Request: fold
Amino acid sequence: MKILLTFFALLATLRAQDFSNVEIQTLHVQGSVYMLVGGGGNVTVQTGNDGVLLVDTNFAQLAPKIMAAIRKLSAGPVRYVVLTHVHADHTGGTEALVKLGATPAAPAPALLVAHINVLNRMVTPLPGDPAVPQALWPLDTYSTPFKDFFFNNEAVMVTHLPNAHTDGDSIVFFRRSDVLSVGDVFEPDLYPFIDLARGGSVQGLIDGLNKILEIAVPAKYQEGGTLVIPGHGRLCDEADVVEFRDMVTIIRDRVQDLIKQGKTLDQVKAAKPSRDYDTQYAAPGSFVTPDAFVESVYRSLKK
Amino acid sequence: MIKLSTGIQPALLLLAAAALPAFAQQDFSGEWAPLYHEDGPERLPGPELADYTELPINDAARLRADSWDADRISVVEQYQCRPHGADYSMRGLGNLRVWREIDPVTQRTVAIHTHLLAWDSERTIYMDGRAHPPDYAQHTWQGFSTGVWEGNMLTITTTHLKENYIRRNGVPRSDKAMFTEHWTRHGDYLTVTTVIEDPVFLTEPLVRSDNWYLDPGQHIGIFGCEYAAELPKPEGTVPHHLPGTNPYLHEFADYYGLPYEATRGGAETLYPEYKSKLTGYKPPDHCERFCVCTTLFNCNLR
Reply:
């Protein structure tokens, strides 16, 4: 619970912070897909003759800057917004970007796509969480393992990863461009936040990472090929996901072993089972400290 | 045809020469064969498990290496065709080709290219003064390299490396590392002095050198690699040793009669003063393995 309070306290702080100095950077990933970096979570942009598709929307305060960056790529209307999960640093800009993304030729609002659990979490927030405005609710939901559609001359394949970072995680595969946008299931420089209160689990996270590895196909000598846009951080490919998957799996195994030995949470923390990864994944300022990550793994395994 | 007077011609030649920038003080182009007189057993045939000697690693790197299980590079398909990083490639574990890319208009060297036998690794070293990519750009095995001349020495800076290893027995090098090389040429010999700075796993820069010999008759073949699931295993298997359970950590020290703590690495063990701490240490009477090992083919294997 302490972790969750810290997370939402952080989000509240971010919502209140001054975003005027944040610059949105644009990186062409490959094919028709771009990555927008800055402020909150990464925003994926797919452009083409049909218009614009977004994966995640960052914070609301950054919407004008994000739209300015999008408009350098396309003058078309925003027709789809896919939300990878419920957290505000990935969904906060939805309403503003949908409004800003409408054009006279296409005034109808964009379709908001997400797993049904994202809608459920927004409609019924946890006690203490702020209410989510109705305009942010994704109403084009899916409750099956998989949803796909065709947009901008390529198949867009949305896959649900059950009980991973949350219980509503989706990853989005742009099949012709060969790009995966995976949300916070994968962040190359940070310990993952396993949102236990919103259905996340360490095993679901590992299963989700293995699903990404199943979809991604590297080019020659394990490099390039399918590119992976993480929830936060730099552009990646399969090999980077492998490193992250290995880290989560190894720490899971260590905590599981300590639990089998009958260790309490405090004893598990004292054993520091993540200590050889802390210099790499405990980023300064990140609310997912080594102790917080170990605690979330422990509590997830004890469920 | 316009004819110039004999007085004007030399003047123009001088002007043309003066207009050329001071670039490419040395030409490294050619086929280079690695020499293994330094660090022979570690480079070829390869390091032994739990040999962390001469590495300024921190505790995190040490535990990562202790936890490493060599099954990972055979059982996990994603590891089977992983190449060496640019830094490890320059340990000379395969033959090297170097060639220049010349701008046809300015005749400047705008890039130097390298090709290594191992995993067909190719690298571009940009010489045109461009900046390194932003931190949100993709990392690669060979990283992003830029070069500058310091007199006759070529200094190369490489960033945006993927996570890899400092020693191929599990000692890690992170994706936040910076790799600096100093290339110098003395006739047919190329010396590459390398510096790895890694805020994640090293407590001080790791400085090494490797030598190459010009071999114009060399032919670099195709490397080739195809990954495949060779053993039935549960999905997502990641072989590793739990802390305190790796049975092989003392093997290297015991075999060579070395004090165990000296094999654990760390900056202190790099310096001559460390020898005074090894009280009571008696070297073994005779060497039994890799004693005169300078190539793969003359190792004194027991």
